[in-house]
């Protein structure tokens, strides 16, 4: 404790060691550019001030905090399933987990949120972080693994085979006789959203079905963004007989809008989602979807991050996991009467 019983701060350490707080920060984070004698001074000051009770002091003694971080914009069903996988991977690993999320769920998105969170967590509190669906490329001095990165990302990442999953979903609809298939896309900056749209286009092209731009709605994975898009598609005189949504949350909103409009699913409209969140199996009708094993995404990301922190990772920097189509009650053969 500092004078008066106040918690010891980095400034207290710097003052006693006769160095700047920036130098203390470099020592704490294990960065280069600090001489051995200065490192010894800082360590001595920490010991004298009783600073070793904090995570930072512990990290100085053993070079690691043995704490990993998970950074996400908000907690939804997708994130919760990912977290289950992360926690199971860390069981008995010696690593604890800090979770950092924004306070709003579908409120105002602020660009750069992931970088701000990483700056707060990296180095002094955590040895590395998992970032879930960032809005931009992330950069940090400590190891990081991204789940669902942005397009052209170069950081270590784990993602599902979104292209194959989306292609399979649309092929399923084509196999049921659907030709006017609507698509509600996700946030375009994410590689996952881009790949799912590519899968939609690929399946149609291979079946000889022209892509109709009027049947594509631009969402952002926020379920609320899908409601007006679904309504616009279903109010068309030549409305689609099927809709593929880039996420289960948006697909469930399509089901809701169809019910409000008196459109029978799957009799008059087939709907397919992507994710396999728990709610998809509880919907009425149960949602046909692409299972991307969110649990495994989290488990693999945590395993990779642990190994990166300990210097034991020898696998690829980008991991692609398989997907599978789960056919449930929201898809059926097209009715001849509904064809345009």
From TrEMBL:
Domain HTH cro/C1-type, chain residue ranges per copy: 9-42
GO molecular function, one term: DNA-binding transcription factor activity
Domain HTH lacI-type positions: 8-62
Listed Pfam families: LacI, Peripla_BP_3
Keywords per UniProt: DNA-binding, Transcription, Transcription regulation
CDD domains linked to this entry: HTH_LacI, PBP1_LacI_sugar_binding-like
UniProt-recorded name of the protein: Transcriptional regulator, LacI family
